[in-house]
Design goal:
Layout: H1 5-15, E1 26-27, H2 34-45, E2 49-51, E3 54-57, H3 59-75
Antiparallel strand pairs: 1-3, 2-3
Helix pairs in contact: 1-2
Length: 77
Amino acid sequence: MQFNQTMIDEFTLLAKFPLSTKMQGLKLHSDAEESLKQAAQRLFEKGVIDSPDGGYLTELGLDLIEHVTVLHSALGS
């Protein structure tokens, strides 16, 4: 199993979502890195977020962010 750059970009974007509440989302501005804008579009198409420019995490997104958080904690030490 390998992580490709596309997956890493999606992990990176997911990690930017606030974890303290489900009531906060994320808005990518027009000057955001192209890789993050493309990651947002892919995550939207997969049903992970509710808007192609960020928005809020869906139920699937909330599940995934828990896994991303565990990975980040484990690998970041």
